Fold DUF7841 domain-containing protein.
Amino acid sequence: MHSYKDYWNKIIGDDTKERAMEEIVCSALEKLKMHCPDLFYRTLYDLHCVAYGPHFDEALAKLAVSKMQNTDGTNGEHWTYEQTNQLAEQHNIKHKADWYYVLNMVYSDYGAAFSGDTGTLVKIAKAYMCDPDAPSGKVLDLWVAQMRAKERQ
């Protein structure tokens, strides 16, 4: 048998065969999830990083935010993606999906403690994202670690 890369190189450009290979690989990944979840999630993380870098994309950020349980008793986003984009522009934030997630996470976890003081929450979110000791993918990496830990409970 050839390597996966050999098969992939053979079918590139043939949409029908690419879709068939995609189905085979996706099916194998679902089986891998059941039998070796650590390898499954590491593979998904690596695929995500190829597509988006070590950062949230809009869809994943919205999914993550939708599951937040806020200290004020609400669930999900406090600020919309569009609202956080405006703040990102004002504060020179490059990774807008990360910013959307972090700003909503800070509100979710600390909003009640700061009485919803947006200015303070923005400062906390920016400090969290601009941590000089942290790697570029800090926001996504910590979220992934939290989700994996939660899954193991």
Summary: The helical segments are 4-11, 15-35, 37-52, 58-66, 81-90, 96-110, 118-129, 138-152.
